[in-house]
Amino acid sequence: MGKTIIISNRLPVQLQISNGSINAIPSVGGLATGMKSVHSGGESLWIGWSGLTDEETPPELEGKIDQALKENGCAKVKLNANDIDGFYYGFSNRTVWPLFHYFLEYSEFELDFWETYRSVNQKFADAIIEKSEEGDTIWVHDYQLMLVPQMVREKRPDTSIGFFLHIPFPSYEIFRTLPWREEILEGLLGSDLIGFHTYDYERHFLSSVRRLLGLEVSFNEIYMDNRAIKVDSFPMGIDYKKFHDAALAHEQNYNEERSDFQLRLDHHKASAPDTKLILSIDRLDYSKGIAKRLNAFEYFLKKYPQYQEKVRLIILAVPSRSNVPQYQLLKKEIDELVGRINGELSTVNWTPIWYFYRSLPFENLIDLYTSSDIAWLTPLRDGMNLVAKEYIATRTDKTGVLILSEMAGSAYEMNEALLINPNNFEEQANTLQQAINMPKEEQINRNTFLQNRLERYNVEVWANEFMNALNEKRDLGRAFVSE
Ligand code: ADQ
Q1: Residue-wise pLDDT tens digits, 255-293
Q2: Which residues pair with 5 in a beta bridge?
Q3: Does the complex come out with an ipTM higher than 0.85?
Q4: Which of 227, 281, 362, 412 is the most exposed place for a label (fewest CB within 10 A)?
Q5: What crossing angle do the helices spanning 440-456 and 386-393 adopt, rounded to 10°?
Q6: What is the rounded CA–CA span in Å between residue 299 and residue 288?
Q7: How far apart are CA 101 and CA 272, in angstroms?
Q8: 210 CA distance to ligand 1 centroid (A)?
Q9: What span, in angstroms and rounded, lies between the C-alpha atoms of 32 and 39?
């Protein structure tokens, strides 16, 4: 059996250059953690962009950078500033991201973006072609690299290729509006296995393949050029133990190591012990429904004024894609909404919304998850939504209420949460009231089911199931050829 090659837009390490020396710091994100079992030892290689454009890379440090990456099992794809503009900020985040999240009106169909996307996908494919050998297994990740499977297959049909999409695949009626729809489908069909978070995304993809390419589809297999391509759903989990253990350690060391952040949360609890904390955490992205959530919160406070001074909403938004105009507009809208609602409803003793626009260290995320009575997550569309799973994992005494949008992929696995339609303010106001008043036994009962499921189907199991399905596909293919 050959080696495994993982390929994603960004590498799972961050480069730091100081005084002519290079440090590659491993990332702690969900994907990097989940792939640990797949990306281990000298048997695997992770290919991706290092985060530095050619213009930002001092030529004399090229060799040192390659060496630092190699020590972490990584190799880089070189991209210039123009590539990043057209491929990442352009086609990936101004065409595909809005379209696949059903924001048709935000999707820009620019030929220049498309051409750069294609040429950058070719650069990624070339890096794989150069580094791969017969029998290798290649796992391609996400919407930035949808043309890579076919580009690799053309030159390396003797490898096994899997693709996983981390965002939704939209319904045929949305997908068909894309000018380069056939090319995207054909790019993906270079894979042996294509994975999605949910059965619905899988179904939408199969329907687009059937209707746009006229290919034969039987159950979850597509037949093309004497090949069978398997399509399946693999809902991504989290590193349950990491979140649960961090929350346990947080409790045990409570009096010794309290962060400034925790001290502020404690002060809040002490000064208003019967006030409920409602938490929401997202990247600042229009797909996450932050502005609607703020409007729904105002609606709730006006419909049920008895809860004024009795609840506080903490909005934590991580800066994201701030080069894209839609994100700048959204930032402005949220700043104004928070200002207006706080201005209108605050009292001497109470500010309804605490708003943080920043990335926080892991410890502070744990402070927030463990201190909040309710997590309120209202994406308008979300491939999965890992924050919902992380909140539940940190509830060591099993209390806490999760209110989750039906439009998040995670809602399919989290039926015991309070599921809402983020466009229905009346329902959300009533659900907030239900959450505030939910008896402890009911909270514990619901969260016991959720925790058991999340612990069992964690991110490592997710990665292994995908790899096993890909290997099984290859072994079946071999048996078929030798018969
Ligand atoms: P995202 O859209 O980024 O991921 P999500 O799945 O919720 O959304 O993951 C966000 C991650 O960032 C979480 O692990 C969270 O802890 C972390 N995070 C959030 N706010 C933070 C902050 N202020 N500081 C530090 N960390 C923060 C995409 C898709 C999702 C899909 C994932 C995985 O859009 O639908 O679930 O990929 O496939």
Answers
A1: 777 777 788 888 888 888 889 999 999 999 999 999 999
A2: 45, 138
A3: yes
A4: 362
A5: 110
A6: 19
A7: 39
A8: 32
A9: 9
